[in-house]
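W.,

You were right to be curious about this one. When I first looked at the sequence I had no strong expectations either way, so I just let the prediction run and decided to look at it fresh. Below is the sequence, 263 residues in total, followed by the output.
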Amino acid sequence: MDSAAPTNQPQPTGMSQNILYAIAEKKRQLDALRPLSGGALLALQKSYDVDLTYTSNAIEGNTLTLRETAELIEHGITVGGKPLRDHLEAVDHYNAVLWMREVAAGDTPVDEAMVRELHRRIVFRSQPDIGGVYSRFPRRIAGSPVVFPNPVKIPALMREYGEWLLGAPPEPAASFEAHFRLVAIHPFSDGNGRTARLLMNLLLIRGGYPPVAVRPEDRKTYLDALEHASMRRDSREDTGPFQAFLHGRLDATLGEYLSLLQG
């Protein structure tokens, strides 16, 4: 039984071999359970899809709790006193997750057009005017020293990014790199993080991995790692902390999947 990390997997700077081996072994165990089917799997996916919606929105300041998000998605129950936009964001994101799963199960190329469509669906009800549209204005994150590219450069950067996506290998490190590169360009007026996380999960699912949620309690670690990488992107250094964080989340998620599926 070979549990070594795949030899074609990109090796991020400073990445521990132990985590790569652990992920490869859990992936091997998950593959041994395939084909995955039945009501249990569908229930598991729905639970994770609600969680993906709650966590991704919560990181961006959405006030709905996990239970409130689930009640809205499953029963259409809104929460008094909470902003309408928070409800619209939850519905949009959940529907975008469902579409993402359909795409991941097919062979439609993941390219620039796919990124724009993901974004359009994520803001379909909450901010329809900006859906899939590149920003024409400077973008900043409050409290962060990171400076994003001039908006004039966005179309060319996104074309280049789309070409890179087409050749990205179906490995976790490439999925996480896709996330980072999109956030570094920050092409949209809003919804960049949510789009990057959904794109990352599309690529993970296509590679046979489960989708990964970035939890609200991990927000500071996650954003600090993103900022660390963004401040060093000109020297190609250093996405190590960002890659390490997401590899850790993938390892934990694989463990959860295996525990639930093996019962």
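Here's what jumped out at me. The chain is about 60% helix and 0% strand. And, maybe more interesting for your project: The CA atoms of residues 19 and 245 lie 11 Å apart.

Coffee later to discuss?

I.
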